[in-house]
Amino acid sequence: MESITRGFLIFLYGFVTAIPFLLPVNTQLIHNIPIGTVALIPILVFYIKVAPQIRFTSSFFHDRILRWIAIFMIISFISLLIGIAKYHNINGIVSFIFQAILLFHFVIGFIMLKTSDDIAYLFKGMVFMSILICLYIIIDIYSLNFLSLRKEEGMLLAHYILMPTIFGWPNAYGCFLIIILLCNMSLFSIASKTFSKLFYGISAAIILFGIIMTFSRTVYCAAIFSIMLYITDQYKNIIRRTMIMSAFCFLVILGFSLFPEVLYIIFYFSTFDVRLKLVYKIISYVPIFSFLFGYGYQSFEVITAPIAQQEIVKGLAISKLSTHDEYLTILLKSSIFGLCIFIWILFLLFIRSRKLSLKLPDAAGRNIFIAWHSVLLPLFLTLLSQENLRFWPIGISFWLISGSTLNFTINKTAERK
Predict the structure, then answer these.
(1) Quick check: 18 and 177 in contact, CB under 8 A?
(2) Model pTM?
(3) How many other C-beta atoms are found inside a 10 Å radius of the C-beta of residue 375?
(4) What is the DSSP secondary-structure string of 256-315?
(5) Per residue in 39-86, pLDDT tens?
(6) Would you say 76 and 333 are in contact if contact means Cβ atoms under 8 Å apart?
């Protein structure tokens, strides 16, 4: 009974995590918050009450990833204090707390997700909610002429319709759907019943259609890359993996050759040009002190206020833009030291998931981490053009599963001893 209750609560936690809607809040510092920030709290409290006694072993406290996360938060807190003293406002506190809540899910993942079955429950919750959202998206843009969506005007219209629908951030939600697609594929691979496989097969089609409906170039590229990695990771033989990767690349090139307008839509170089110029402008503007200590989680508008009216290209001022870059955001908010530690944490998590995908004795767990590892590199690359880890559904799911890897690492160490 206890395991069933735990499984249901984990499922519910994943279900709520995948909700991409905002809750309006009329305060001076906060205008809205993700629904998950409110809904996840009672689920977590109830889980702690019904779960077995939670124990933090010495292996937990000695985990080097956890230690680097703690160091990152200390550096960020120091930057926050400097930002408050320099700008004489407390606006950065909200952003800092939001970052802390996301990172705290590393600990929650360690507490909740102890086995591959637990992660499967989480995946099922996220997949089920995402299917509902994808169906909602499809219905929401039903009136569009689908042939027009292949053109730039059609994509802009779709974005306009989707902006208020999915968190005002269809690009980030598209990246979240890639995570969900890989989670769904892992559930398909470990399912034993025909009905379950049929359900996850249909779910994959719905989620894939939802990815297409976000009309995000970054998402399309990341989806292709993730699926290619997932397929090749199924094989340990290097020759087979090379052959599959080559065949996949050939099919992509063939597709672009047959539909060259799709290539233009995905690689819209004027957007790349604007973002590169923005990065150069900001980095050249940042003084040495702020480069070393950050801006204390102040908003982009506050940081760029002195150069807000400067134009990146004709008619496009900095005041009309945002960073669109997770790494640049971390650099500005918590200094170059915070950025280096953040990248190091991502690298360690990538290596750990890779080892688990190769060496876990549990076949179900191995399949889960093959899917998770396949999505990590594309996700990290999307951070160059989007602040995806600060998007609530991605941030929570990323740090939850990252925290769960510690359980598997501890178990492997115990088995060796």
Answers:
(1) no
(2) 0.87
(3) 27
(4) HHH-HHHHHHH--HHHHHHHHHHHHHHHHHS-HHHHHH--TT--HHHHTGGGTT-EEETT
(5) 777 777 777 776 666 666 667 778 889 999 999 999 999 999 988 888
(6) yes
